[in-house]
Write a structure and sequence with these properties.
Blueprint: E1 2-6, H1 10-20, E2 25-30, H2 33-42, E3 46-49, H3 55-60, E4 68-71, H4 76-90, E5 94-98, H5 107-113, E6 122-124, H6 126-139, E7 145-149, E8 154-160, H7 172-178, E9 184-193, E10 196-201, E11 214-220, H8 224-232, E12 244-248, H9 252-264, E13 268-273, H10 276-285, E14 291-294, H11 300-305, E15 313-316, H12 321-333, E16 338-342, H13 346-352, E17 359-361, H14 363-375, E18 380-386, E19 391-397, E20 422-428, E21 445-447, E22 460-465, H15 471-477
Parallel strand pairs: 1-2, 1-4, 2-3, 4-5, 5-6, 12-13, 12-15, 13-14, 15-16, 16-17
Antiparallel strand pairs: 7-8, 8-11, 9-10, 9-11, 18-19, 19-22, 20-21, 20-22
């Protein structure tokens, strides 16, 4: 696929890195020639120096035969105008814009984005993606990751297996026998080994879950708490929900998250920020129940005075990776139950994985799936980038019939998937038209596929792929042809 990326900042860099690894033809536009030279030296792509709203610059970048434009420059206005120019002058089929403003969430805002407006097919907002993602970690505090499929009816969660939990130490086949009514499947295990990175462990019925394993589980949403408890909570422990939250950093993400938590209710939220003017603005804009503190989140005395040992979740969300890492490590040492650090540099995120920091979150990884769904071939509904971009979870819809499809009308045992690809679950009964209401008598059903399960047309099938190079094989398998034979 031929893709133009406008903007070589943090988001543009991460998007380019991910898409280049999938053998796409990438061109990046930016006004900073030095930044583009760095990108060209690191990745197999082309850089064009200039302003993305200039038709000549877009033409030089190859807009006339481009399949996808991703406008992720720093300014909303630049991204919106670039999409409009790409639509009117070059007829680029798909146009995505990074937009920070929340004004486009309204009905009037959506009209402005449409074909007769700025010509944007999809807006992405890294801050909004992060807020949603962190919200899921607040809802499921024992999880390391939570990814949704089929409109939220199914979830992929990762959890650290803990000694003493009811299903840790068991074989996967034994787990199925103990809880046959629970719609869940373990699709991957990453195991710690001394002095080397976590290693992917293929899963079958004979695989045993060991303490310290990072376990990836696909399940119906309603079973997620039960799954997390079985793998992470000791039998004599009661569930402990997140109530006390401390946020280091009152920027866009911290502010959005605080407002979201206030609307949900039931949370005690404190925000710490070094900028006195920003603190005053936050105190004026946020609900009165949120406490805003002017100070340094790496100040041991400040954390102690504010009862860090009672905090259920500490979130370091500043723009400085080093400060986020140090604040999280300090908070953990002083007694915070769980800590999350926002880390932009991929190398830093890799270093922090498996340390005292419970969750090292990359902003680009949080929104990457929203972009990958447009790059994937076939009827792909959702994509989630996992394990810092190495692995992937993919939701794809089966279309056609037995004559035109390699999967529809066939048993799972008859489908020739690559050995490492894991078919996790099937959601059946979803409306075919996007946005349509499901038929009442056909309530969507989450199915754990067995060898005898037959794939039906319109089934939403969720896969776990330990390597992105396997994506093309799955897409090819689900491709509908005029006739299969």
């Amino acid at each position: 696929m031929k893709i133009i990326i406008l903007g070589a900042g943090r988001v543009g860099y991460s998007v380019a890195e991910s898409l280049v690894s999938e053998r796409n033809d990438i061109t990046v536009i930016d006004t900073d020639a030095e930044r583009l030279r760095d990108l060209e030296a690191r990745f197999d792509l082309r850089g064009v120096v200039g302003n993305g709203i200039d038709p000549e610059v877009l033409a030089e970048a190859g807009a006339r035969d481009t399949d996808l434009l991703i406008a992720c420059a720093a300014q909303d206005e630049t991204n919106l105008v670039c999409c409009k120019v790409a639509q009117l002058l070059f007829n680029v089929p798909t146009r995505i814009a990074r937009v920070r403003s929340s004004g486009f969430d309204t009905e009037q805002g959506r009209l402005l984005l449409g074909k007769d407006g700025f010509g944007v097919d999809r807006i992405i907002c890294p801050e909004e993606s992060l807020t949603r993602y962190i919200g899921k970690l607040v809802e499921f505090p024992e999880a390391l990751q939570v990814r949704q499929f089929a409109g939220g009816r199914a979830c992929l969660v990762s959890v650290r297996a803990r000694l003493g939990a009811s299903m840790v130490g068991m074989k996967i086949a034994t787990m199925r026998e103990m809880a046959p009514e629970v719609a869940m499947r373990i699709v991957a295990i990453y195991r710690r080994f001394p002095e080397e990175p976590d290693r992917f462990i293929p899963c079958d019925g004979a695989t045993r879950v060991e303490p310290g394993d990072e376990v990836f589980v696909l399940s119906a949403r309603e079973h997620i708490p039960q799954v997390l408890a079985a793998l992470h909570r000791r039998g004599d422990q009661a569930a402990r929900p997140v109530r006390r939250i401390m946020v280091a950093g009152g920027g866009r993400v911290g502010q959005r998250l605080a407002r979201q938590l206030s609307q949900q209710g039931g949370f005690n939220v404190k925000i710490i920020d070094e900028d006195a003017a920003r603190c005053q603005a936050l105190a004026a804009q946020l609900p009165t129940g949120i406490l805003v503190l002017n100070g340094d989140a790496t100040d041991e005395d400040l954390l102690g005075d504010e009862g860090i040992e009672e905090v259920d979740l500490f979130l370091a969300l500043t723009d400085d990776d080093e400060n986020n890492i140090m604040a999280s490590l300090l908070a953990k040492r002083m007694g915070a139950r769980r800590v999350l650090a926002l880390i932009n540099r991929r190398s830093y995120a890799d270093l922090m994985h498996g340390t005292q920091i419970d969750i090292a979150l990359s902003p680009a990884q949080a929104l990457l799936g929203e972009l990958l769904a447009y790059v994937r071939r076939g009827d792909v509904q959702a994509v989630h980038s996992l394990r810092r971009g190495v692995a992937e979870a993919l939701e794809i819809v089966a279309r056609g019939d037995r004559k035109s499809s390699r999967v529809v009308g066939r048993k799972v045992s008859e489908i020739h998937l690559p050995a490492e690809v894991h078919m996790g679950l099937i959601v059946r009964g979803l409306p075919e038209a996007q946005g349509a209401e499901p038929i009442p008598e056909q309530e969507p059903e989450v199915i754990i596929p067995r060898s005898h399960t037959v794939i039906e047309s319109n089934d939403h099938v969720v896969f776990f792929l330990p390597h992105k190079r396997l994506v093309r094989d799955v897409e090819k398998l689900f491709r509908v042809s005029a006739t299969f034979f």
